[in-house]
Design brief:
single chain, alpha/beta, Nucleotidyltransferase, domain 5, Palm domain of DNA polymerase, 2 domains, five-stranded mixed beta sheet, 12 strands, elongated
């Protein structure tokens, strides 16, 4: 990989997360019930874990800055799973001797948390606690097993668009979930309910989802959907951009719609607000790497569009397959859906992967928005987490390292977005 030799080979399903693969193969979702009859686990009834979760926030008290690693004490605060507000009196333990560290560990065990929240725990707090424990000869056990706090996972360094990004290792606590909010964008934005929602959707462990970006989570859901289809997972994307002419590139590589407003005072101004526009275009136009320029459809047409609801879309494709086979002899060819302004088409006989990924997320977010009772409640945090996935799913189609990305899909979404927005602009002008 370091020498780029993977470009000469096609490697499939070599780096799939084992937890995700096991859950997908048994059709089990995280935080749902499981039935075990002695042979193999089976999905059980759904359960609401939020009411039963014990969440403990652990903060350090420092002399100077955290970079000095001079830990004076530790503060324990039991918090509510949804809004992370304190549910009990916090306890502070000043670490001036081995006995105080043992008192902290005893109090930690009394709470017996399921989820441990820290702010900079991976980089500062847990290494400082380990250092104190080693100096005083105290066994530092923060998991539910008899083992001590393990050394952190390997630090990673990646290059992304000319920037060098470093990420520290992660301290895993056996039997508990450790979430470091300092390194969890999704945790800060959507809280614990949002992380649980994404863990269920992706099949990745909760602490792993907390450290991932929205793009990495949407990629994990794509991988899970592909595994459910029985499709091998590409390790690296080896497919280059299709060869095109300069004129076609000029038409395709245009991005979104930009309008310069006319200076002056305007009356009867219309505001057009699209809900999940780009994800909806992916689903209803069946835009996916494998559906662009298909060979099964003949010619170019203007429709019909795929239903947005995932269940209706599944029936829609099934009915079209039956009609194509039994509608006449020989079977009549179907036209592909043309992309406005481009020479690209999308298949209308095979349901694309990306559409089957985003459509359930759109429906789930609509359901959660209808259940909201106030800002930042459980349903609101969950729908906010899904919103971040839907925001990134469009850009991820053009990301050069995306497993299921393709630049032509990115260009098709932009073309459809320009067409839809111009249609809305023209309708608004016609009303004026």
């Amino acid at each position: 990989d370091a020498r780029g030799l993977h470009r000469h080979h096609t490697l499939l399903s070599v780096d799939v997360d084992p937890v995700q693969a096991w859950l997908t193969s048994h059709d089990i979702e995280l935080f749902d019930g499981v039935s075990i009859d002695g042979s193999a686990p089976r999905p059980g009834s759904s359960v609401d874990v939020m009411d039963d979760l014990r969440v403990l926030r652990v903060d350090g008290e420092w002399d100077g800055t955290v970079l000095d690693r001079n830990l004076r004490g530790v503060r324990l605060t039991p918090v509510a799973p949804v809004d992370l507000s304190a549910t009990d009196v916090e306890e502070v333990f000043w670490l001036d001797a081995a006995g105080s560290l043992e008192e902290f560990l005893e109090a930690f065990e009394r709470v017996d948390p399921d989820v441990v929240l820290t702010e900079g725990g991976d980089a500062h707090l847990l290494p400082a606690l380990r250092q104190r424990a080693e100096a005083w000869g105290v066994t530092l056990r923060l998991g539910r097993s008899s083992s001590v706090v393990p050394t952190p996972t390997r630090r990673t360094t990646v290059r992304s668009y000319g920037r060098l990004l470093r990420r520290g290792g992660h301290h895993r606590l056996e039997g508990r979930v450790h979430i470091d909010l300092a390194t969890s964008f999704l945790g800060r934005e959507a809280g614990l309910p949002g992380l649980i929602e994404l863990a269920q959707a992706s099949g990745h462990p909760l602490d792993g989802v907390a450290r991932r970006s929205p793009g990495a989570v949407i990629s994990a859901i794509q991988v899970r959907t592909a595994m459910q289809d029985g499709v091998l997972i590409p390790w690296r994307k080896n497919r280059p951009e299709d060869t095109t002419t300069g004129w076609d590139l000029l038409q395709a590589d245009r991005g979104g719609l930009h309008l310069d407003p006319k200076p002056g005072l305007h009356l009867d101004v219309f505001e057009l607000d699209f809900a999940s526009l780009f994800p909806s275009l992916i689903a209803t136009r069946n835009i996916s790497p494998e559906t662009l320029g298909c060979t099964c459809c003949e010619g170019r047409g203007d429709g019909p569009l795929v239903p947005l609801d995932p269940d209706e879309a599944k029936r829609w494709f099934r009915q079209r397959s039956v009609h194509r086979r039994l509608g006449g002899l020989p079977p009549s060819p179907m036209k592909a859906l043309g992309v406005p302004g481009l020479g690209l088409t999308t298949c209308l006989q095979r349901h694309g992967l990306l559409g089957r990924v985003v459509a359930p997320l759109i429906r789930r977010r609509q359901e959660l928005k209808a259940k909201r009772t106030g800002p930042r409640d459980d349903a609101d945090r969950r729908q906010l987490a899904l919103k971040w996935l839907l925001v990134t799913c469009f850009g991820y189609t053009g990301y050069r390292n995306a497993r299921f990305g393709r630049i032509e899909a990115h260009e098709s979404i932009c073309a459809w977005a320009r067409d839809v927005m111009m249609t809305g602009v023209e309708a608004a002008r016609a009303e004026n």
